[in-house]
Amino acid sequence: MFFQSIETLIAKAQQGNKRAWIKLVKQHESQVYNYCLRMLSNPDDAMDLMQEVFISVFKSLPSFRGESSFNTWVFQIVHRRSVEYYRRRKHFQSLDEVPELTCERSELESNQLVQVEHQQLKTMLNNLPWEQRLVVELKFFQHCTFEEIADQLDISTNTAKSRLYSALGKLKVHLEAVDG
Amino acid sequence: MANLDSLFEQWLEGNVLSDTQLQQLENDPEYHALMSQAQVWQQHSREYKTVPVPIWDRQSTISQLTPRRVFSAAGTWVVVASVLVCSLVFLVMPKQPVSELLDQVAKQTQLLDSQQKQIDQLQKIITAQNELQQQHMYQLTKEAISTGRVERQEDLNSLLSYIKTQRAQDQAYLRIQLNDLAEQVQEQPMAAIAKN
Predict the structure, then answer these.
(1) Which has the least CB within 10 A, A45, A141, A174, B125?
(2) Angle (nearest 5°) at CA A46 between A45 and A47
C-alpha cells in the first residue's frame, strides 16, 4: 500500500486513471454525503445528490487547475448541485409542508441516541428556508468565514450575514416554541 | 452598535475576544440572544456524529470516455514518433552539415503536419459517419413505427369485418327463427291462443 498525495491522485484521475478517481471519491464521500443528508434530511435523496455531485465533479475534473483546494472546489460543485436538486424537488413538494420522514433503512437507527440528536438537528434545519439552511451549514458545519460563504454562494458578505442572523432569529422562535 | 456587530462577527469567526469584549456582547440583550442561538448550532456541529455512507456503486460516477481522447492519444503517438525520428536523424548522421539536418527537420515537420491533417480528416469522417448512422437510425425507427401502425390498422380492419360478418349471420338466423314463429302462430287455431 503506497500513500499517494491528493495532488497525485487528482493528476492521475485527470489522466483517466479509474483507481485514482475511486480513491478520491472514497476520501470525500463521507463529507459530501453528510452534507447532503443535513441539507435534504432524507438518506435516499442524499444518496442521489451525492451521486450527481460526483458525476459532476468527474466531468469537470479536466478543468480543475488547483487555484483553490480540491475540497473547496468540490464543495462549490456540491452547493450548485444541491440548489439545483432542491429546485427540482420543490416542483413536487414543499419541505415545509411535508411531515418528517423516518427511513426504515436509515443507518441512524443503529444508535438511538445519535438518532435523537440527528432528529433534533433535522427539525432545526427543516425549520429554515433553503438559503438560510445553506448559510448555517457553511458557517457552523463547514466552518467557513463570511467571505468564503459569500464567495461560494455568489452573494455579498452582508447578505450572508443577514441570512445567518435571520436563521439565528428563527432558531430562537423554534426553541421558545419547543420549550413552551 | 456597529462595534458590537463587529465583535459578534469576530466571535462567530472563531476569534478570541477579551473578557471585556465578551461582557459587552453579553450585556446587550439582542447580541446575547444571538450568541446563545449560535452556541446551539456550534454544539450541534461539535456533537454531530458522522453518518457512514451506505454501500453504493462508485464506478457509476465515471462517464464514458469521449472519442476525442482516442485522437489525442493518436496525436501523442505522432509527436513521440516524430521526436524519435528527429533524434535518430541527429544521432545516426551527426556529421552531416547543419543545413541538411535543418532540411530534414523541416521535412519531419511537414510530415507531422500532414499526419495531423490526416487525423483531422479522419475525425471529420467519423463525425460524418456518426451523423449518417443517426439519420439511418432515425429512418429505421420511423419505418418501424409506420409498419407497426399499418399492421395495427390491418388487424383492426380484419377484426371489424369479422364482427360485421358475425352480426349479419346472427341477424339472418334471428330472422329465420322469427319467421318460423310467425308461421307457427298463423297455423294454430284461434282457440289455442291465450286470451289476456
Answers:
(1) B125
(2) 90
Measure the CA–CA gap between A122 and A42, rounded to whole angstroms: 9
Task: State pLDDT tens for residues A127-169.
Answer: 888 889 889 999 888 888 888 888 888 889 999 999 998 888 8
At B71, which helix (H) or strand (E)?
Answer: helix B67-92
Which residue, among A142, A162, A167, has the nearest Cα to A152 in the 3D structure? A142
Judgement on whether residues A109 and A37 belong to the same structural domain of the protein: no
Are residues A112 and A31 part of one domain? no
Domain-by-domain residue ranges, chain B? 2-47
Whose grid coordinates read 421558545? A176
The Cα–Cα gap between A31 and A75 comes to: 9
Domain containing residue A64: 1-92
Least-confidence region, from A100-109, A122-131, B120-129: A100-109
Using CB atoms, pick whichever of A33, A51, A124 lies closest to residue B61: A51
Cα A19 from Cα A115, distance rounded (Å): 34
pTM: 0.56
| Chain A interface test: which of B12, B13, B50, B53 (most A C-beta within 10 Å) | B53
Domain end: A36, A68, A92, which one?
Answer: A92
Q: Cβ(B51)–Cβ(A110) under 8 Å?
A: no
pLDDT digit string (tens) for A9-68? Answer: 898 888 888 899 999 999 999 999 999 988 888 888 889 999 999 999 998 888 888 888
Cβ distance B40 to A30 less than 8 Å, yes or no, reads no
What are the tens digits of pLDDT across the range B142-182?
A: 999 999 999 999 999 999 999 999 999 999 999 999 999 99
Could you tell me if A109 and A152 lie in one domain?
yes
Note whether A121 contacts B44, CB cutoff 8 Å.
Answer: yes
Comparing alpha-carbon positions, the chain A residue that sits nearest to B61 is A55
Question: Into how many domains does chain A fold?
Answer: 2
How high is the mean pLDDT of chain B? 85
Same domain, A4 and A83: yes
CATH of the domain at A64: 1.10.1740.10
With CA atoms as reference, the chain B residue closest to A55 would be B61
pLDDT of residue A101: 47
Is the residue at A80 inside a domain?
yes
